[in-house]
């Protein structure tokens, strides 16, 4: 193609971009105008409120970020051109100027190939700098041209330095990722992906996709993202808003179950027992054994008459309600209602009239009925049930040693004054689930799921009972004492045993040389997962052996200083115990004011990434915990461009020959 043609094309595309931005601004202007007059046109306060919320959301959704491209691709189908971007933009006549990446037609942007062109003659990808269109790249699928992962624009995007929070990947979603993103709402899936294969990205884009396709339904039931800690959640928090999705709930499992404050710390032994799935059985038994067979009749007087229900029908009512398998508190209400119904029938029989609402309510609360209920089906709170179990752990499910591990050394005088631990909160949540139903989200995305304990997984299962889930994780990165060695068990605890386990193996973060180093650890990790294959041929790996251990921190500092000559973020990752000392060391060298540098404890880096990672004394990281080698595997795979490993002690196990 002659050069002037390229220029003409580029300026035509720039023109389309400018026009699209102007059209989006008009769409937003219209939404704002509607927003400001909304309460005047709404019939009542409730509708005005609903309309106001809807319009405010709409205005937010239509925000234009001048630093990100409004479209990033184009499809030529049957002589028509369709630009693909972050959201629909239409001109004043309602004609599409940019298609939302989630629209059915846009699917071909991600999936069309020479083998299956899907009607696409040409696929065009745009290169941008700061929202300005600078280049494009065409694949003429109709002429057998396909770039795949060799696309220059894809490579540039993957290799772009990382600064600040996570970015969306709409422009470059790969076919195997797209298949997961666009899976049906009804499908629960489990993505087993090596580090940097885009699991988190896939989960977030899937949430955005499902919200687009099932907007009303999911807005009502809600979409929830569960992540391992708040640092991770804040790292990913900008992705969905950038995709126009501003109403997704994000939290850790601890956030989900936070019904009471955490005021105690468990021993490791107690933590293990409390997270074991048998605790569900312990709680369930402790609860249901509270029911007792009624042996006394109920005698009630309402002022005019005396009523009596014998023990036999009462036994039947309790047995029936139990057999119905309802949550405990619902069953209790049911028993009360049936007792009142029996009284009502007697009253109708004797007086010939139906008693009124007030009479029925009163009968539900009279002392003999309440006393019967308290004996046969006593009221209980989740906290009280857990406190009871921890005060005197029942026999039958746990071993004596396990019971001793969770028994409170000094039981509290009242439930209110009880001090609960993080693990207790999950138990309280389980107890609450036995008492009553938890509202279910329409879809839940669970990241770093390999670290969920069975009891935590059950807390998520209760919140997705009527919805589907996307489970993201990597068994090799499991560091919790209960971390899964295979997926089916976790999926069963999550209530979705049928979920398909789909692997992702192409890595977009970690350079090949770094992946090769990390992969050496895999055989020692005791899990059977496919190795990562890196798309990245760039990147540096340096192993710096220090002979005098007292030089270790100085060498680390030297690596940081060298890293700062490059673009992007720098992290020193060290065993937690060394972090304060290293921060002091860097501060003394005047690096504390450099916003690009962070000293991060090894236990906090899961899910994060930095352009340059300096790993400080890997042997200490590996020795710090039972799953230390898994932790080291996580640490080594955080680097986007360069990894320096600084060590005085021998490198741990399988890395020693590196
Ligand atoms: N298709 C893609 N195009 C461009 N960048 C991508 C693509 N897929 C993933 N990435 C980038 O690769 C990096 C790793 O992605 P992500 O964090 O989602 O991986 P992960 O599998 O969750 O990793 P980990 O298991 O280590 O937490 C991110 O910077 C992400 O933006």
From TrEMBL:
<keyword id="KW-0547">Nucleotide-binding</keyword>
<dbReference type="InterPro" id="IPR014016">
    <property type="entry name" value="UvrD-like_ATP-bd"/>
</dbReference>
<dbReference type="InterPro" id="IPR000212">
    <property type="entry name" value="DNA_helicase_UvrD/REP"/>
</dbReference>
<keyword id="KW-0378">Hydrolase</keyword>
<protein>
    <submittedName>
        <fullName>AAA family ATPase</fullName>
    </submittedName>
</protein>
<keyword id="KW-0347">Helicase</keyword>
<feature type="binding site">
    <location>
        <begin position="193"/>
        <end position="200"/>
    </location>
    <ligand>
        <name>ATP</name>
    </ligand>
</feature>
<feature type="domain" description="UvrD-like helicase ATP-binding">
    <location>
        <begin position="172"/>
        <end position="511"/>
    </location>
</feature>
<dbReference type="InterPro" id="IPR027417">
    <property type="entry name" value="P-loop_NTPase"/>
</dbReference>
<keyword id="KW-0067">ATP-binding</keyword>
């Amino acid at each position: 193609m002659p050069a002037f043609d390229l220029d003409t094309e580029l300026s035509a595309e720039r023109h389309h971009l400018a026009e699209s931005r102007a059209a989006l601004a008009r769409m937003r202007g219209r939404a704002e105008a509607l927003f400001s007059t909304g309460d005047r046109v709404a019939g009542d306060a409730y509708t005005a409120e609903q309309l106001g919320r809807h319009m405010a959301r709409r205005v937010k959704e239509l925000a234009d970020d001048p630093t990100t491209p409004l479209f990033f691709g184009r499809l030529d189908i049957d002589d028509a051109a369709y630009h693909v971007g972050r959201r629909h933009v239409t001109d004043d006549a309602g004609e599409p100027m940019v298609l939302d990446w989630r629209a059915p037609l846009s699917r071909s942007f991600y999936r069309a190939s020479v083998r299956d062109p899907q009607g696409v003659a040409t696929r065009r990808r745009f290169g941008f700098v700061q929202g300005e269109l600078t280049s494009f790249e065409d694949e003429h699928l109709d002429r057998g041209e396909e770039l795949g992962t060799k696309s220059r624009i894809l490579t540039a995007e993957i290799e772009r330095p990382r600064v600040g929070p996570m970015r969306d990947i709409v422009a470059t979603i790969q076919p195997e990722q797209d298949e997961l993103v666009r899976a049906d709402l009804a499908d629960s899936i489990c993505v087993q992906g090596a580090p940097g294969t885009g699991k988190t990205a896939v989960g977030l884009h899937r949430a955005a996709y499902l919200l687009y396709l099932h907007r009303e339904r999911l807005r009502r039931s809600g979409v929830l993202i569960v992540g391992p800690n708040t640092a991770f959640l804040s790292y990913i928090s900008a992705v969905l808003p950038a995709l126009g999705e501003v109403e997704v709930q994000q939290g850790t499992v601890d956030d989900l179950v936070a019904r009471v404050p955490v005021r105690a710390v468990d021993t490791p032994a107690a933590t293990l027992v409390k997270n074991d799935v048998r605790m569900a059985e312990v709680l369930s038994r402790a609860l249901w054994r509270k029911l007792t067979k009624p042996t006394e009749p109920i005698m009630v007087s309402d002022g005019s008459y005396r009523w009596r229900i014998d023990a036999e029908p009462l036994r039947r009512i309790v047995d029936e309600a139990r057999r119905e398998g309802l949550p405990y508190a619902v069953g209790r209400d049911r028993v009360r209602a049936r007792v009142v119904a029996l009284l009502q029938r007697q009253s109708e029989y004797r007086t010939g009239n139906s008693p009124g609402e007030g009479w029925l309510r009163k009968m539900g609360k009279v002392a003999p009925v309440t006393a019967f209920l308290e004996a046969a089906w006593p009221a209980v709170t989740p906290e009280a049930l857990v406190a009871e179990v921890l005060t005197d752990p029942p026999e039958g499910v746990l071993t004596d040693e396990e019971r001793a591990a969770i028994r409170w050394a000094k039981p509290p005088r009242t439930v209110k004054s009880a001090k609960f631990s993080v693990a207790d909160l999950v138990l309280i949540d389980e107890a609450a689930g036995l008492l009553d139903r938890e509202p279910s989200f329409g879809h839940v995305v669970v990241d770093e799921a390999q670290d969920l304990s069975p009891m935590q997984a059950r807390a998520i299962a209760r919140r997705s009972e009527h919805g589907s889930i996307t489970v993201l994780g990597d068994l090799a990165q499991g560091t919790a004492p209960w971390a899964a060695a295979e997926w089916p068990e976790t999926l069963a605890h999550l209530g979705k045993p049928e979920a398909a386990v789909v692997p992702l193996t192409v890595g977009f973060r970690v350079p090949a040389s770094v992946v090769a180093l990390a992969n050496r650890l895999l055989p020692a990790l005791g899990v059977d997962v496919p190795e990562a294959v890196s798309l990245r041929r760039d990147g540096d790996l340096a192993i710096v052996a220090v002979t005098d251990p007292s030089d270790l921190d100085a060498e680390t500092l030297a690596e940081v200083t060298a890293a700062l000559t490059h673009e992007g973020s720098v992290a020193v990752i060290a065993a937690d115990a060394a972090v304060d000392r290293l921060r002091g060391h860097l501060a003394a060298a005047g690096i504390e004011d450099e916003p690009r540098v962070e000293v991060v404890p090894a236990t906090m880096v899961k899910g994060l990434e930095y352009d340059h990672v300096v790993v400080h004394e890997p042997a200490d990281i590996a020795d710090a915990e039972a799953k230390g080698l898994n932790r080291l595997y996580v640490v080594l795979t955080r680097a986007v461009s360069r990894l320096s490993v600084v060590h005085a002690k021998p490198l741990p196990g399988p890395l020693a020959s590196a």
